Fold:
Amino acid sequence: MDVFFHIIDDRKYTSALRNIHAMLSDDGYFIFSENPVPTEAIRGHVRDRREQEILFHLRAAGFEVAVILPMFILMNPPVASTNRWLWKFSSLRTSALRWAFQKRMNWLGWIIGMLIYPAEKTLLMSWGWRRGPCTNIYVLRKAGRAILK
Structure:
C-alpha cells in the first residue's frame, strides 16, 4: 500500500493503521511504503513524517516491524540522504521529466523510468542497503492489541 503519506492528520493516520490491524489475521503481515524524512512537513496533500514518528504510529496501532527495506534509491528524491551524487542525479532526472512534461512528451517519462530501472534494481539487490535515501518498504506483523485508544 502506498498512500499513507497522503493522510495528513495524525489521528486519522493511526486510525487507518488500526483498521488494517483489526482486519489482519493473527499470523498476517501488512506491507506498505512510507517516505521517512529528516524534518517533518506538510506539502499540500502530503505529510512528511520522520521515521521515529512513523514507528510511533505503527506501535500505537499494534504493529511490530518485521523488516524495513529500501524501495527506491534513484526513482525518488533522496530526502533522507546527504549524498551529493544522489542529489545531482535526482535533480537531473527531475529536470528531464519537467522538460518532457512541458513539451507534452509524457511518453519520455516512461523511457526515463525504463532506463533508470535496471540501475535501481541492481543497487537495491546488491549493495545491502538497510534503509533507502527516500521511500522504504515496511513489513509489519501484529504485535497484539493497540497501545493507544
In short: The chain is about 40% helix and 20% strand.
